[in-house]
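Reading a protein record of the kind used here takes only a little practice. Each token is a code from a learned vocabulary of local backbone shapes. With that in mind, consider the following protein and its fold in token form:
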Amino acid sequence: MEREDSKLDKLVLDSSVIIKWFSQEQDTEKAIAIRERLIQGDIIIAAPDIQLYEIANALRYNSRLKEQDVKEAIESLLDIGVIIIIPTREVIKLAIELAYKFDITIYDAYFIALAKELKFTFITADEKLYGKVSSLDFAMLLKNIKN
């Protein structure tokens, strides 16, 4: 049986997890613990390029943040070592299949497809999304991760 901590070595984080790096929400401390492991070089995090737009957009509508704050947050994602991956035919096709199979958006399915293609663990803080894909052995809900 694979240990949970070994499943946390190579990750694709849903935007719902990354956004917690920049705002105080439920399970922010768990998300920040993952970020700290990345900074220390203990783990690898990959993300589809669309995540940069999703994060920037979510932060743009945070009334506590100014334009410069959003720019700095995105800069930090680029500097911290998150591997940004552009779309491939294979991953897009798989994302479409997953979207239909689990009745989820193509946007959400793309993160999951990327994790599957890379053989990484997918982590989300979105309980509704996780409820739909929890049968996938490489999907985890942030709040279920032990610090």
